[in-house]
Amino acid sequence: MDEQGKQQVQIRVRVNGEEHELTVEPRETLLELIRNRLGLTGTKLSCDMEVCGACTVLLDGKPVSSCTTLAFEARDREVVTIEGLSSHGKLHPLQEAFLENGGVQCGFCTPGMILTAKTLLDENPDPTEEEIKEYMSGNLCRCTGYKMIVESIVAAAKKMRGER
Amino acid sequence: MALPRFTLHEPDSVQEVPSLLLRYKENGAILAGGTELLLVMKERVVRYEHLINIKHIPGLDHIRYDEQEGQLTIGPLVTHRALESSDLVREKYPVIVEMERQVANIRIRNMGTIGGNLCFAEPHSDAGTLLLALGARVKAVGSEGERVVPLEDFFIDFYETALKEDEILTDIYIPRMPPASSGAYLRSAIAERPTVGVAVILTFSPRDEGIEDAVITLGSVNPTPIRAPEAEELIRGKAIGEVLANLESIGERAAQESDPTGDIHASEWYKREMVKVMVKRAIQEAYDKRVRQQKG
User: Fold this and answer.
1) How far is CA B90 from the centre of its chain?
2) Which of A100, A108, A117, B186 is 20–30 Å from A146 (CA)?
3) B37 touches chain A (CB under 8 A)
């Protein structure tokens, strides 16, 4: 408890490879932790009810809705946000593919799309279009009509398999 | 929207949970995946000042099959995604994998648990409908001891189960699929939740001339998942050809057995119509699967 009688939870969490020691209230969401405490604003607050996917982060490698995940649940775990995908300024093949194939318009859904696509390709390096659409069906986009997003993922998958 | 403030409790064992529930009564709730609970808390539909996080309690996330008993035992903390991805479940109960693949979206499936889903008892859910058709039972542990409740007695009303104030669900038991059987789970849905859900389990006679048994459950139309016994009677003991020629009447009968209310998902008329359509399709699909099974 702190001086005001509010319960506090001490957590250690690794975000994009970097360890953080934080004190959070139980009610704080992972999204609030990421955006407000760590200043990582690539992850977006959108529907706030787990249906749109704009708040997607990877928790121990699995996509979750950070808007409806409590911050303390990330204790001793690994969080990856979109900022964690590029390495020393070099873009991840998915990021490159989205840029090259028109998969980004306003960019609001893009972080969630890319992180979810990453786990798809981790699990299934050569997915069919049907498999891509099914896996990505929980990520909404209001701009692209989805076609270019699917094409971006197909292109990234090809690159990541080492094919030309 | 920010969540209202609550006090977090993190017991290490099942034994600690009933006394916590008794202490906080309607001010306390169990927190598993939080995919349904945290939403209603955000919306201020419910107010819990105490949340009991059970995710640190060991022994609640198992998926076990006992060949002798012919029984699948699932812990309440098993996520939808874990069931969806389980080789064991796919081998023994492919219809469970079929249902889990349709639940919500991948993020909700990664966090949401089967136990939480059953205990929250939201009618517009998928698992209860299928598990009812599979003859599932659940074990509840409270301060007075433990008991096993068949799922048909577990769902009382929307958002209401037979769990007592101080009970936690610790196991879900699913009996062996009958030999020569196949099942299908279909839903009509616009968004994450089903508007209508239907499960059909058909048991075929040894040489596939007829259908020995049929179980049809309807979900999301009544306050709880229900059986459709009159529709089942139109299938039980009949020749396959006769059933397939009669799908319209069977679907229609099932639709009449449901008691839907118009709501944000759909009108009463549309829900009844979807019951009919989904029942017809599910019977056809269960049969088609049997044919594929037999072809090897």
Assistant:
1) 16
2) B186
3) no
Provide the Cα torsion B240, B244, B247, B250; round to 10°.
-10
Closest to B279 measured CA to CA, from B222, B225, B215:
B215
Helix (H) or strand (E) holding B110: helix B106-111
Q: What is residue A21's three-state secondary structure? A: strand
What is the torsion angle, in degrees rounded to the nearest 10, for the CA atoms of residue B6, residue B7, residue B10 and residue B15? -100
Which secondary structure element, helix H or strand E, spans residue B150, and what is its range?
A: strand B145-150
Token output for A127: 């997915």
DSSP string of A43-104?
S---SSSSSS-TTEEEETTEEEEGGGSBGGGGTTSEEE-GGGTSBTTBPPHHHHHHHHTT--
Position B187 confidence tier, pLDDT thresholds 50, 70, 90: very high
Q: Note whether B98 and B86 are within 8 A (CB).
A: no
What residues of chain A lie within 8 A of the CB of B110, using their CB? Answer: 59, 62-64
**In whole numbers, what is the pLDDT of chain A averaged over residues?**
96
SS3 A10: strand
Residues above pLDDT 70, as percent of chain B: 100
Tokens 């809705």 label which residue? A65
Burial class (CB in 10 A: 0-12, 13-18, 19+), A130: exposed
Which pLDDT does position B177 carry in this prediction?
Answer: 95
Q: What percent of chain B has pLDDT over 90?
A: 96
ipTM of this predicted structure: 0.96
Contact A64 B7 (CB under 8 A): no
Burial of B37 (C-beta count, 10 Å sphere; 0-12/13-18/19+): buried
Q: Which residues pair with B175 in a beta bridge?
A: B71
Task: Tell me if chain B has a CB within 8 Å of the CB of A69.
Answer: yes
- pLDDT tens, residue by residue, B111-168: 999 999 999 999 999 999 999 999 999 999 999 999 999 999 999 999 999 999 999 9
